[in-house]
Amino acid sequence: xxxxxxxxxxxxxxxxxxxxxxxxxxxxxxxxxxxxxxxxxxxxxxxxxxxxxxxxxxxxxxxxxxxxxxxxxxxxxxxxxxxxxxxxxxxxxxxxxxxxxxxxxxxxxxxxxxxxxxxxxxxxxxxxxxxxxxxxxxxxxxxxxxxxxxxxxxxxxxxxxxxxxxxxxxxxxxxxxxxxxxxxxxxxxxxxxxxxxxxxxxxxxxxxxxxxxxxxxxxxxxxxxxxxxxxxxxxxxxxxxxxxxxxxxxxxxxxxxxxxxxxxxxxxxxxxxxxxxxxxxxxxxxxxxxxxxxxxxxxxxxxxxxxxxxxxxxxxxxxx
Length: 320
Hints:
By secondary structure, this protein is of the alpha/beta class. It has nine helices and twelve strands.
């Protein structure tokens, strides 16, 4: 028997991906375009149109009942607009209206990319089976999303759980968001690398100054590289513990490029949690690496759309 499908878009500064997703989270059709991030807004929108046109050209398109969008942010789901930091041509861009016009007025659900990743991890990944979870992307930036009471909690604008801009150092460095000492300003990949370079770490002959290169140096025992990851882990632990104290999450799932450092990040993070998650009701908090990989944005966008109240039928089961 044929079942309904959900279309999904995953929009970031590097790529615009699209897929048709079935009730088991399988991507039956997928396509992708490079994001013309430095072009004007209409040029970026045309790339979205091309992805949608390719999906709509599939023989499976007639089974699509809703469309989910996970976008780099900030997003404003209440108004259907996006203003991604890494796509300067889109400021208050009416993405939902554009997508609806291109797809015959399908129900459309817009969430931030961190929320989309959370939906995917809760449905099929490391947060599966947990009713209360924080899922995070630690990469160029730090984003996240929440599951509360067994359901995705995107918030009114689709940004709830954006842990990267919790301040964990009141007198810390200014953050591009306008605050000081944000988790992102300390824990993101570029800031891990910046701190290591400022502390005297030097890259190898290839000149690689990425967080991955710092992680490799940390594995080799370089004290400055280790210290930079320790500081990142401390910031993450403080933000996670604060979130757990407010929401009683049971698990924090961490994905993104920085999570690829493995125990170089997770070992000091788990140690630091003992210093911050001290109250009895958060002491059992678990930390785990994400499982969904590069498909998380598409799977999660589909899950968010399927669980939205505007979706006529549940093509995808978001959560348990």
